[in-house]
Design brief:
- Two copies of one chain form a homodimer.
- In chain A, strands 6, 7, 8, 9, 10, 11, 12, 13, 14 and 15 form a ten-stranded mixed sheet that branches.
- In chain A, 37% of the residues lie in helices and 18% in strands.
- In chain A, helix 5 packs across helix 6.
- The first copy, chain A, is built from 14 helices and 15 strands.
- Chain A is globular and about 65 Å long.
- By secondary structure, chain A is an alpha/beta fold.
- In chain A, a hairpin with a 2-residue loop joins strand 2 and strand 3.
- At the A-B interface, helix 2, helix 9 and helix 11 of A face helix 2, helix 9 and helix 11 of B.
């Protein structure tokens, strides 16, 4: 066999991009969202791309790992795993301050650090073999991946700033207007409302208003686990026939199992089943009907393919979760979804909220709510170096080093506590 | 992207090779073992290899499928799956007459037909990209794969024929002598005895004799589910401390679960968990502690990687099952094992019973009971066309068209029935 390719260098660039004031159970999005762009260089023009979180403690682990990847064969994901584990060493837990993805553990931290480098390796594998990433994941089950409109309650603009182009949405009418605009602009065929912001009855009213405005669109509601079990059951009963699934109504597998047993619709989660260790209990208790995969914290695309296999075997639905992200993550999600036979629901994305800002030279485009699998080798996307430089400068000057939705909301409402209805 | 490679033709060659009279619960191995060799041709010299069962009803499905593969892109395993399903159509159940792998179902038949073509596609993918198959499965977790000595009670030779080179083994002394020869010749570090042939006490005596002769070798016993639950529990108690696992003592997940709850050692299976649909119940009941994967009936190497992921997540051990096979299957097993992080036990193989007969130009060699991952691209093995032609002629003249251990034993013992102790 010819000489194996080897990574010559890995670069992690923290970036920031403008983010609207989207409300959720933990608080409100800050004016800048943080991400990190990973480049694995093989020499010459060959670069593999990855995208991950941009919070400072996570960045430190990405940098430490990047330094340990020189000489890595991008096909040897087993070696990648060994190098990441060695670079992280012991005692490397990093918790999210935004608190929307549960507590921390070494396995979760390992998965979150591994993920963007695995994606970059797969991008390189594709470029070296002239194949799209979905082929390397096992073949193409669909040419287009459907996404869902992701609605948020939001302020008109950040405090002290002009209203943004999306404007205010703090009641059913505002949510319907937001949905109409988003569906018109992107063609989404299903709609999700991020809830957990207002008392349940107000959010049910928003769902009813959406149903009236969109008689045929499947609807979802996600209160980020701020309801008790009785509240969750009550909302589930009141929204019977309205929701294709109810996402994370309450906290933890036991609570979700209790609600699931009485809810007329499936429960989805990206909060109580977010690592492999949680699958056995969740499946045994039938706590969830849909798992929302996210390669950024499950450990990469192949890890998500394993999760998909479990969902298929246990006859549990599967879709994908999203945080604020840019085009490299979007491309990775599209390839993964294309290679996943049992993708059962349209995928979440925050893309419309980024208002066209991206690190790609040619951002992926939505048509009829779907994105076509990029044709090029690897992820099929190209980094816009000018945009990267600009966003890197924005990171340096924005002053935010860790996502903190709660702290930001408390600047406006000092007494804010995460609700429990 | 450049033009996609496309399969120009698929050839299925049934072959036969000499097999010694190995006894098991279903009967005894016939003088000829049947297999099929699959070649997927891309044009030029590029051929992808696979190996499967050689029974006539299965062969008919392989031939029907082969005819539907012209134009297949060997990277598009999703398309392969679609083509196989379309070629098989409805109502294509094929049961094993040897009855050692449970009943039939469309999903099992699909998996068995898909498997050798998937392996051949992966071999082609490796050849097209100059990478070994283990890299395409996710990287190399080990450079050498450990195998286990696979002992059988056996006659000295087939009825009417000269004794074979292994000679008779019908009691503890014969089994120990067989083990000594096999361990000396191949260096195996663990030992499995195929049981279910004699009453349990005699097989326990053989295990005790093996323990005395091999104080440090992990031992296994596999009676192919011919014991009742009480017998299984009794044997398990009597062999406490002697066995690393007890394989398929009794039939079915409920029975296995009952034994597992009382047995001091883990129970392994390649009989009650042989398709994905059986995993949820098996895991819920904790029926098995070790799953013996077999890519020939789980649906290929990627399917086995999914099975391995389930075993890892549910904290169940994993190793591999073997039927009589040749070097293409062995190479596929080695690549799969190399790419499986959680391979917990040495792998089964019938290779020593084939006495050097193979379809490979350079058969894989055991050193210290292990086989090194072949270095070449793809599976890293090359077909010996002269040997293939010889074995194909042997198939045509041997007269056997379906494995039938029971029928063959009844030629000697007309009253033979599968035992139940």
């Amino acid at each position: 066999m010819s000489t194996r390719p080897a990574v010559r260098g890995a670069v992690v660039t923290p970036i920031a991009f403008p983010d609207p004031p989207l409300l959720n159970a933990a608080g409100v999005h800050q004016p800048w969202a943080l991400r990190s762009i990973i480049e694995l260089r093989l020499g010459g023009e060959l670069v593999g791309l990855g995208e991950s979180y941009g919070d400072e403690p996570h960045l430190a682990l990405l940098h430490r790992t990047a330094a340990a990847l020189v000489g890595l064969d991008p096909f040897d994901l087993a070696d990648l795993r060994r190098r990441v584990a060695a670079a992280l060493g012991a005692g490397f837990d990093v918790a999210d301050r935004h608190g929307l993805t549960g507590g921390s553990s070494p396995a979760k931290t390992m998965a979150r650090v591994l993920a963007p480098f695995e994606v970059a390796c797969l991008d390189l594998q594709g470029k070296l073999t002239d194949r799209p990433v979905c082929d390397l994941l096992g073949g193409r089950y669909r040419d287009r991946v459907p996404f869902s409109a992701y609605l948020f309650y939001k302020w008109a603009g950040h405090p002290g700033a002009e209203p943004d182009e999306w404007g205010e949405a703090l009641d059913p009418a505002g949510i319907v207007a937001q949905a109409q605009r988003m569906v018109r602009q992107y063609g989404f065929g299903s709609i999700k409302l991020k809830g957990g912001v207002f008392p349940p009855e107000e959010e049910i009213a928003a769902i009813r208003a959406l149903r009236e405005a969109f008689p045929a669109h499947p609807l979802r509601l996600d209160p980020n686990a701020v309801w008790t079990v009785p509240t969750s059951v009550k909302v589930a009963e009141e929204t019977e026939g309205l929701l294709e699934y109810l996402e994370d109504p309450t906290e933890g597998i036991p609570g979700m199992a209790e609600v699931a047993a009485r809810a007329p619709m499936p429960l989805a989660t990206n909060m109580c089943v977010i690592q492999f260790a949680e699958l056995p209990e969740a499946m045994a208790r039938r706590a969830v009907g849909v798992v929302l995969a996210d390669h950024h914290y499950w450990g990469g695309l192949r890890a998500c393919a394993e999760l998909a296999a479990v969902c298929r075997i246990w006859d549990v639905g599967l879709s994908m979760h999203s945080n604020s992200h840019l085009g490299i993550s979007l491309a990775a999600m599209v390839h993964l979804a294309a290679a996943t036979p049992n993708l059962s629901y349209a995928v979440d994305t925050h893309t419309p909220w980024q208002c066209g800002v991206d690190v790609l030279r040619t951002p992926l485009r939505f048509a009829d709510g779907s994105i076509e699998v990029p044709a090029g080798p690897g992820l099929g996307v190209e980094l816009d170096r000018a945009a990267l430089a600009r966003m890197s400068a924005d990171y340096l000057r924005c002053g935010i080093r860790e996502r903190d939705d709660t702290g930001y909301l408390r600047q406006v409402r000092p007494d804010f506590e995460r609700p429990l209805w």
